[in-house]
Design brief:
heterodimer, A: about 220 residues, Beta Polymerase, domain 2, five-stranded mixed sheet, 4 helices, 9 strands, B: about 375 residues, alpha+beta, Cytochrome-c3 Hydrogenase, chain B, three-stranded antiparallel sheet, 15 helices, about 10% strand
Chain lengths: ~220, ~375
């Protein structure tokens, strides 16, 4: 068997969650998820947006979280406790740089089922809530994980969440001439319309108001 | 000499789909690159917000034409995480067969396309011939040739048809013989070796940080495979270790990325054969569609506040879905579907790997990373 054992993954996830709880502005716990026939632990973190930059640095430097999978932005105009949500998915791959000998890289082939402690691969999910604002933004982690670079570009392009300190922000999936302020995954942009007039009178959706605009706050 | 920017694409034989690579050249040498994507952005993530959980599978199939099954399966695992479904074991084995056959078909498509990229035209016809065998097998499962819509939340659409195991074993043993022919066709072709060896070095130390995954990462000697490090499906029941390439000290070049995919093809064929042998109930038994042995009952609504995610080893790297529940129709539709495409993250890194090489090396380097623009642009 070459796959990581579930017991070591769970114990290592609980270790990490405990250590992360001592970091400022973080509350973390281990969530047991299941898909297919397998269950797996996911370390979930709730971080406040002011602390995010320090937490990210600590994740990378102190806790060996070396791989940024995905960044998701969600617009919640109707939710009570949040208006914007940013979800980061990280992996702690646990791999080391393979050593060289005779000019050839020697891969480290370990029996994955025997991995222990900080070598065990783990999944992390970081959630940041932002309040009611027209200009949501959060600190960029582009320089810590280069893999987050295009993820952040995409999240800004489609959802409209800005990343402070991001170098070279631009449209990646939409055309370059897309009007400023148009981010299609915000919820005031609908996919289905009542009739064609509603669709074509204001195709870009600038006159359309957010769904919650009428409500008294 | 004065430096200048050249646009390769959106219509260019190198691009394997619609995208532009802006290249800054100094004479024949590449000084800087800037990829420009989004030419076939279809807004799949937005469309998914007004489809229910069964309908989304069809859209995920169409994310990548060369590897439809891996994408719909990646979605299904995330949806099962969200809805909390326990899947029968037989269905997991059938899924494994479908996914690994698709990985074979996808790698063969890549090998067939990579040959003409660097001047080895005859190999294309050879690879497409074997890909046709895999497509026939997948067609028996899913009913159509490229977009199968095979998995369901809670199981699979159909059981293995009568005689499938026999035909699969026969075709895979034929394939395992023929794979040696490809190796000799490539490894003894001077043009191929000259154009692929020593170009496009990708350093193992930086690939993880740049978010590169899958075969491109393992080509650099880094042992990381989602199938073993974050186990899903029934990979833990089978006897295998992921293939890792012994690249040179400078990193993985195009030749290493070719080697690793050939190794992976051998491995996928082996995994399918093992899964057919170990399948609970035997590969020859047949259950009607909807039988609880292959399809568990699944809820159709996910309330607000729930979420599901899954990391999946796609043919091109780590794909991932994140689904937030609580959308239209009291949770009948997802509130937000987010897709991680491995090539979307890899293309910027691959473009950086070209710096310092000649313009003529660009197709060789870009092709070796196996770009697929359908999934990149979503």
């Amino acid at each position: 068997m070459s796959v990581v054992s579930q017991e070591s993954q769970i114990s290592s996830a609980e270790d990490l969650a405990q250590k992360l709880n001592s970091v400022d502005g973080v509350s973390s716990f281990v969530d047991q998820r299941s898909s297919g026939t397998q269950t797996r632990p996911v370390v979930k973190l709730q971080v406040s947006s002011e602390n995010w930059r320090e937490v990210a640095e600590s994740l990378y430097v102190d806790h060996g979280v070396d791989y940024c999978s995905m960044i998701t932005g969600i617009h919640w105009p109707d939710s009570k406790d949040k208006n914007w949500e940013i979800i980061y998915h990280f992996l702690r791959t646990g791999v080391k740089n393979p050593p060289h000998s005779d000019g050839v890289v020697q891969p480290i082939i370990t029996n994955n089922s025997e991995l222990k402690g900080s070598d065990v691969p783990l999944e992390l999910e970081v959630t940041i809530h932002l309040g009611d604002t027209r200009t949501p933004s959060v600190a960029s982690i582009q320089d810590i994980w280069v893999g987050a670079d295009w993820n952040e570009k995409e999240t800004w392009d489609l959802v409209g969440i800005d990343f402070e300190g991001h170098q070279g922000m631009r449209r990646v999936l939409q055309p370059h001439e897309t009007p400023k302020g148009y981010h299609p995954l915000q919820k005031q942009h609908k996919l289905r319309y009542h009739n064609f007039q509603e669709m074509y009178d204001d195709a870009q959706g600038f006159k359309r108001k957010p769904v919650d605009s009428e409500r008294v706050k | 000499m004065a430096e200048m920017w050249i646009s390769m694409g959106p219509q260019h034989p190198m691009t394997h789909g619609l995208w532009t690579l802006k290249v800054k050249v100094d004479g024949e040498t590449v000084v800087d690159t800037e990829p420009d994507l989004g030419y076939i952005h279809r807004g799949v993530e937005k469309i998914c917000e007004s489809r229910d959980f069964t309908q989304i599978t069809t859209y995920c199939d169409r994310l990548c034409y060369a590897s439809a099954n891996t994408w719909s399966h990646a979605y299904i695992y995330a949806a099962e995480d969200l809805l909390g479904v326990e899947v029968p074991e037989r269905a997991e084995y059938i899924r494994l067969v479908a996914v690994e056959l698709q990985r074979l078909a996808s790698h063969l498509m890549w090998l067939g396309a990579y040959g003409p990229d660097i001047g080895n035209l005859s190999v294309m016809v050879w690879c497409l011939r074997e890909r046709e065998m895999m497509m026939d097998l997948l067609q028996e499962l899913g009913g159509s040739r490229m977009h199968y819509n095979f998995p369901r939340v809670g199981g699979v659409k159909r059981d293995l048809p009568h005689g499938f195991a026999m035909r699969a074993r026969h075709k895979l043993s034929l394939f395992l013989d023929r794979i040696q022919e490809y190796e000799s066709l490539f490894d003894e072709s001077t043009i191929f070796l000259v154009r692929s060896q020593g170009v496009g070095y990708a350093k193992p130390e930086e690939m993880i940080n740049h978010g590169v995954s899958g075969p491109n990462l393992r080509a650099g000697g880094v042992n990381h495979d989602i199938r073993t490090s974050h186990p899903y499906s029934v990979y833990s029941e089978l006897d295998w270790t992921p293939a890792v390439e012994r690249s040179s000290i400078k990193g993985a070049d195009c030749y290493d990325r070719y080697r690793i995919r050939v190794e992976e093809m051998r491995q996928s064929a082996g995994l399918v054969l093992q899964a057919l042998d170990k399948m609970p109930g035997g590969a020859e038994t047949y259950h009607e569609p909807g039988d609880p042995k292959i399809l568990a009952k699944a809820p159709s609504r996910a309330p607000e506040g729930t979420s599901g995610s899954h990391h999946f080893e796609d043919s091109r790297g780590e794909s991932m879905f994140y689904i937030a529940g609580g959308g239209e129709g009291r949770g009948k539709m997802p509130y937000r579907v987010s897709i991680r495409s491995p090539m979307f993250i890899t293309i910027p890194y691959a473009s950086k790997c070209m710096i310092g090489y000649k313009v003529a090396d660009i197709p060789a380097i870009m092709g070796s990373f196996d770009p697929c623009i359908g999934e990149t642009d979503r």
